[in-house]
Amino acid sequence: MDDSDAMFVQGQQTSKGHLAFLREGALMAVPFDAARLQVAGEAFPIAENVAIAANNRYGAFSVAGGTLAYWTGG
After folding, report:
1. Which of the 8 DSSP states describes residue 67?
2. pTM of the model
3. d(CA 29, CA 41)
4. I need a surface site. Which of 11, 46, 59, 67 has the fewest CB within 10 A?
């Protein structure tokens, strides 16, 4: 089971990008085709030991303008 909400990260191609989410403290990404609303590959880790909000739903990460920011911690 994944630990947080997912965030779509737009790629350079029109409708393709990645979904970023937390899984057991690791920030993960999985290729995603937004036009087809389908995962297009296997998930892979981006960062380890990423914090999660007290309500256990929102990961402490954000993506904007091609920049990924995250907060580490337990």
Report:
1. E
2. 0.83
3. 10
4. 67
